[in-house]
Amino acid sequence: MEPRRVILFGKSVILGTVGASLRQRPEFEVIALAPPFPSAQELEQLAPEIILFDLQAPPPEPAFALLEHCPGLLLVGVSPDRNEVTMWSGQTFSQLSTQELVRAIATRAG
Predict the structure, then answer these.
(1) Cα distance from N-terminal residue to C-terminal residue, the chain
(2) Would you state the pLDDT for residue 4?
(3) pLDDT surpasses 90 at 36
(4) What's this model's pTM, rounded to 2 decimal places?
């Protein structure tokens, strides 16, 4: 089975921590993107299944644009100050640890 491709959209500490946790799991391939970010078309060529970003950073417009073309794409916004994770599947979790976030992504992606 091919690993699920996860894009980290930004360079915040929280994304680095989540990325390090995901890299320890063989079912994920993690790609970190830093500014300047690719266009939605370039991002689509990377074929992500999950895109994570920091809710306190400017919104990743290419990722949201990609949602229109890839309905199975999961966008996950992480807020380190509020200890909150928002998944664009309509679910919001509070007080979520990094390990719980990894488990939530694995469950949603599987």
Answers:
(1) 11
(2) 93
(3) no
(4) 0.79
Count the residues in the chain: 110
Q: Does the pLDDT of residue 93 top 60, yes or no?
A: no
- Are 21 and 75 contacting, i.e. CB atoms less than 8 angstroms apart? no
- Angle, CA 59 vertex, CA 10 and CA 82 arms, to 5°: 80
How far is it, in rounded angstroms, from Cα 30 to Cα 62? 18
Where are any strands of DSSP class E within the chain?
4-9, 28-33, 50-54, 74-79, 84-87, 91-94
| Token pair listed for 26 | 């063989």
Tokens 């970003």, residue located: 53
CA-to-CA distance for 50 and 4, rounded, in angstroms? 8
Give the number of other CB atoms < 10 A from CB of residue 9.
Answer: 27
Answer yes or no: is pLDDT of 98 > 70: yes
